[in-house]
Design a protein that fits this description.
The chain is α+β, with helices and mostly antiparallel strands and 268 residues long. The protein is built from 12 helices and 8 strands. The chain folds into 2 domains: 154 residues, Jelly Rolls, CATH 2.60.120; 105 residues, Homeodomain-like (Arc Repressor Mutant, subunit A, Orthogonal Bundle), CATH 1.10.10. A hairpin with a 2-residue loop joins strand 3 and strand 4.
């Protein structure tokens, strides 16, 4: 894939949350104005000086910018992010925190550094005749990510996450992000795939994220279900079948348990 496809720079949020950027991580620096949006089922607001990092575009809905909203967005493919991510286990903690809240409020010095990082990536992307362009871009994105780690660690602190625990949690989340929760919602199944006990997987998850493994399984599941429930072209039976529930009645009980209302009431 060409580097111009690995990295895309935009000056609006058009297309975020759609298939257009389905394989990209979005890094958005708000330059002016503000923008309200729904992320992970909750209302969030992006204001001037805020940095928003979105790993899963489908978690974003109902983007409502103000008239004076200005933003710079760097989209990077998942594969290129992996190539550019520094050898630090901190990324796991950041990944989990950003899943819950993608917006970081930067101070003045951080905003200035972030603007410089964005400008560097954009300038390097324009150097199409550079003989070592791919390496150049990997280094530029890595500098961007390192500063993101620093911004985040100043907000939330730095924890020493053991390599083995980070690896287990990363593989667990990758399975969830690939949609395995549609068919498998038992901690035992994931533990077996990771060659650990269910108790150990939950201990690792709780230590790194503050939540047990079943929280993340149900979180991914109910976010997907709630998104599909808003699509009135899909019947409840169809959605139930998509998630391999044993019956529509069991599906209804699951929705009631996790959303607090029945599928009919949620669809309203």
């Amino acid at each position: 894939m060409a580097e111009t496809e690995n990295i895309i720079i935009r000056e609006n949020l058009d297309g975020l949350g759609t298939d257009a950027y389905g394989n990209y991580l979005a890094h958005a620096l708000c330059l002016a104005g503000g923008c309200r949006l729904k992320y992970n089922g909750e209302e969030r607001e992006l204001r001037a000086g805020d940095l928003m990092i979105v790993r899963k575009g489908k978690l974003v809905e109902r983007i409502r910018p103000t008239e004076d909203f200005r933003v710079k967005v760097i989209y990077v493919t998942s594969e290129f992010v992996v190539l550019s991510t520094p050898l630090s286990n901190y990324g796991m903690k950041g990944q989990l925190a950003l899943f819950l809240n993608p917006v970081m409020k930067l101070d003045d010095a951080q905003q200035e550094q972030c603007r410089k990082d964005f400008e560097m990536v954009e300038a390097r992307l324009a150097q199409t005749d550079h003989h070592f362009r791919k390496d150049l871009l990997i280094a530029s994105v890595q500098m961007l990510i390192i500063d993101f780690f620093d911004f985040h660690s100043h907000l939330y602190g730095v924890d020493n996450i053991p390599m083995q625990s980070a690896s287990i949690m990363s593989r667990f989340l990758n399975m969830l992000e690939n949609g395995t929760y549609r068919e498998h919602r038992e901690v035992n199944w994931y533990a077996d795939k990771l060659c650990v006990t269910p108790k150990y997987l939950s201990e690792v998850s709780r230590k790194i994220s503050g939540y047990a493994a079943n929280y993340w399984i149900n979180r991914y599941t109910i976010l997907d279900i709630s998104r599909l429930l808003r699509d009135k072209s899909l019947t409840f039976v169809r959605i139930s079948d998509m998630f391999y529930f044993s019956s529509p009645a069991y599906f209804s009980r699951y929705v009631q348990q996790h959303l607090g209302v029945s599928p009919t009431e949620y669809r309203g």
